[in-house]
Automatic annotation (TrEMBL):
Entry keyword set: DNA-binding, Transcription, Transcription regulation
GO molecular function: sequence-specific DNA binding
Keyword set includes Transcription: yes
Organism name: Glaciimonas immobilis
Protein name per UniProt: Lrp/AsnC family leucine-responsive transcriptional regulator
One Gene Ontology cellular component: cytosol
HTH asnC-type domain location: 5-68
Biological process, per Gene Ontology: response to amino acid
Length: 154
């Protein structure tokens, strides 16, 4: 727990994680602070990088991206420069929602959201089959998402 965050900061963060569309007036009332104080705190939390960005969470199946894949990727060469090249490759791929370097086991775990199996196949060819440094890929396809949260306990 970050000691520089006080109770008001934590109330603001929890409220915004639940619903970032609150107006400053609504947020201030919810966290029991003045509007001016709340505005200053949100600005500071944003400037300090605690609040990274505010987004809308979209239902993938409602926008034609109903197939979720969790992908383990192992590289032939694991040096930092090789990992950075792979990370740059997936950073440019909109269907890759998350990319993690992991240990032990594979080098990366990706969270991928695509329309269907044909779209996954095309992505797999671009990101994995066409890359000389990709040694192994193991993909798990989600059949049910029983939990999805974006909030971090603060």
């Amino acid at each position: 727990m970050d000691p520089t965050l006080d109770g008001l900061d934590r109330r603001i963060l929890n409220a915004l994680q639940a619903d970032a569309s609150y107006t400053n007036q609504q947020l201030a009332a919810l966290v029991h602070a003045s509007a001016a104080t709340c505005l200053r705190r949100v600005k500071r939390l944003t400037d300090d990088g605690v609040i990274m960005r505010q987004v809308a969470i979209v239902a993938p199946e409602k926008v034609g991206a109903g197939l979720t894949a969790l992908v383990e990727v192992t590289l032939d060469h694991q040096g930092d420069e090789h990992q950075l090249v792979f990370e740059a490759l997936v950073a440019n791929e909109a269907s890759v929602l998350q990319c993690y370097r992991v240990s032990p086991g594979p080098d990366f775990v990706l969270v991928v959201q695509v329309a269907d199996m044909a779209a996954y196949h095309a992505l797999a060819h671009r990101l994995f089959a066409a890359q000389k440094n990709v040694r192994n890929v193991k993909t798990y396809f989600s059949i049910l998402r029983s939990k999805f949260e974006t909030n971090i306990a603060v």
